[in-house]
Amino acid sequence: MSRQPGYLAPDVTVASTLPRRGAASAVLIVPVVSTGDDDRPGAVVAAAHPFLPGEAVAEIEAGLRALDATGGSEQVNRLVVPSLPVGSVLTVGLGGPRDEWPADTLRRAAGAAARSLGGAESVITTLSELDMAATVEGLILGSYRFTAFRSEKTAPKDRGLRKITVLSTAREAKTQAAHAAAVAAAVATARDFVNTPPSHLFPAEFAARAQALGESAGLDVEVLDDKALQDAGYGGVIGVGKGSSRPPRLVRLIHRGSQLAKNPKAAKKVALVGKGITFDTGGISIKPASNMHHMTSDMAGAAAVIATVTLAAQLKLPIDVIATVPMAENMPSGTAQRPGDVLTHYGGTTVEVLNTDAEGRLILADAIVRACEDNPDYLIETSTLTGAQTIALGTRTPGVMGSDEFRDRVAAISQRVGENGWPMPLPEELKDELKSTVADLTNVSGQRFAGMLVAGVYLREFVPDTVSWAHIDVAGPAYNTGNPWGYTPKGGTGVPTRTMFAVLEDIAEHG
Ligand code: BES
Ligand code: MN
Ligand code: ZN
User: Which residues hold Mn(2+) 1 (predicted)?
Assistant: First the structure.
């Protein structure tokens, strides 16, 4: 598959027993729980016992006791266990004992384990007996790293995690592992796009990479260049892009999955739209210098949408999925749009641009109108749209807005997959904030309240009443500027790829 020079996902193998030889350099990841018992502070989770020779459990627990390790949540410890045919054991804590663990607890534990391998290239784990999908996703996502721009001076000496062996007795283990590996690889693709710096990922290059990736998965791809955008009346994309020497693009990636459905006529059609600002300086309404470099992440919505539609093709989802992805660089210059300019969106709505830093909604409105010309049943749009999202919900909780029912469905699914989107309202009265004295709308409100919701209200103006839609604001969650945690590294997180793909699967199954 043609991908940007980025992360190479490890191979995943399912086995029903611990390999007896050939694993001398492998690390065995074993889940442990805290017992509250001083003599046995950390205990191997019982589901792991059948895979281990009798004396191994006692040896591991003796090791934990010697280290005072309690099996607390995501606590990791490395042990040498002579009775096992592996190089070492890495225990990972799940917290208190229980019969079943939430999937994301296991996903995070797997991620934390993957982040503490210290260069080991092969792992074997029993965590998979608790939840195959969460284990595979957590291990792959936790071992993710982005080294494309390191010379020999700082490149890692090891090749990273190359081989994962997941132990399981479940009959569907292989199918589940392959599915989870594909999902995790899609998230890694989204992360690679986000982590590629704006020097190297500008609209034309982003479009070319999206096209190559999409075509390799069998998608039909159309790319509109700046001339085509101008001629067709994409005033929002043109207005935002015209301050840059690197002109805008609009990419369409089409998965005709209804052909794979039992009843193609009844198959649903889903439109995806993602914000692809390859760098957001704010334009003439320029941003402060501190932290402006974080705006390399302002194409994270586009990255997630491209990864999601590609995955839909790879996993042959029996529904139509059409991604519409506007791409532009928001720069200040002599050719940039000015505060006070009026532009005409695709479809004819006019907008007074009072703040050139509210550029996301300008390119998204054009793309939403285009996407809805295909008469989709559902529209999912995602963007790093507002700083107000992080004020309202923090850095790990996407805000989900849109039509009430579909919004709640998307948020519930997002919770289930561990991306934790939360439903937010679009109060009717906020529309009054967007009244212009010269055009149909202004692009910002006059006050600073409810910034996330005002942006959603702006987008709503462009969605036909017949389309069930959701807007997912991932300004914070798409890009981790803090320390790594669970399976989330620094930099691009790939959020909300797993949410969107799970929603597509849900629609494929339930309509
Ligand atoms: N890309 C930003 C939003 C953003 C902020 C994403 C922080 C990630 C982290 C967006 O284009 C923007 O600048 N929004 C403005 C809107 C305002 C001018 C109404 C904002 O949030 O300040
Ligand atoms: Mn902006
Ligand atoms: Zn932006």
Answer: 280, 357, 359
